[in-house]
TrEMBL record:
Lineage of source species: Bacteria, Pseudomonadati, Pseudomonadota, Alphaproteobacteria, Hyphomicrobiales
Biological process according to GO: methylation; pantothenate biosynthetic process
Binding site residues for 3-methyl-2-oxobutanoate: D44, S45, D83, K113
Cofactor note: Binds 1 Mg(2+) ion per subunit.
InterPro entries in the record: Pantoate_hydroxy_MeTrfase, Pyrv/PenolPyrv_kinase-like_dom, Pyrv_kinase-like_dom_sf
Biochemical pathway: Cofactor biosynthesis; (R)-pantothenate biosynthesis; (R)-pantoate from 3-methyl-2-oxobutanoate: step 1/2
Protein name: 3-methyl-2-oxobutanoate hydroxymethyltransferase
CDD domains recorded: KPHMT-like
UniProt KW keywords: Cytoplasm, Magnesium, Metal-binding, Methyltransferase, Pantothenate biosynthesis, Transferase
Family, similarity comment: Belongs to the PanB family.
Cofactor (UniProt): Mg(2+)
Binding site for Mg(2+): D44, D83, E115
HAMAP family found in the cross-reference section: PanB
Protein purpose: Catalyzes the reversible reaction in which hydroxymethyl group from 5,10-methylenetetrahydrofolate is transferred onto alpha-ketoisovalerate to form ketopantoate.
Amino acid sequence: AVRPITAPAIRAQKGQTPIACLTAYTTPMAQVVDKHCDLVLVGDSVGMVLHGLPDTLGVTMDMIIMHGKAVRRGLKRALMVIDMPFGTYEESPEIAFRNAARLMQDTGAGAVKLEGGVAMAPTIAYLTQRAIPVMAHIGLTPQSVNTIGGYKVKGRGIEAQAILADAQAVAEAGAFAVVIEKVPDILARRITAEIDIPTIGIGASAACDGQILVVDDMLGMFAEFKPKFVKRYAELGTDADAAIARYAQEVKSRAFPSAEHIFGDAPASVVSS
Ligand code: KIV
Ligand code: NA
């Protein structure tokens, strides 16, 4: 049997081969990602990508748990990390522990991810000291869209110092890895060189210890908008549009179903004309 990848194993990959990560929200997609990637994130991006929400704030424990269970069934090898939804961890380390434990127990995830640097370091320490591996997420943190005022690049100019402090704080608190989202290349490089845990970039730097993308973005399935950092490896949304248009047209013209898709009757048919 294949040995599953653990959070400590991801941490140990720092300075070795780059860590390939993607999100997944369903069993079939998890099966494909599992074949090729080291880490699968059940991201709260699911709210926007699959549920049509305007941002990630409306994602609930029940939603992420349902997707987490589906993803778990598709994994054999990759480490499964699940996002802590907005409002489930910020208030206190104790509340964070209760919700993180529930996420892991209900879904079988091997780690949780939460957004925040210096402010969340005590919570990260509390969880990691109590058997819950934590992946941190700094730079652009989408759950803070209302206080940031948009999804712009973080860490330009003097703000770089604060992001560097965030990176150091989460590493010292015991996070096994840190996602760095939408910061200048030079800052992500510096952080990667200065901290001893893997940096997982998204709109960050090729120098990061790993990369992550939202799977629906890189497959061209989520077409609402395309951030600069998304590289489209397929155009499945366009393919789906063409396929569905053809299907509807063939139904209307009675071209579908044809002989190969329909069943013949038994020789001594009881159906008479
Ligand atoms: O929710 C998500 O998909 C994420 C990744 C983009 C890092 O947090
Ligand atoms: Na997220």
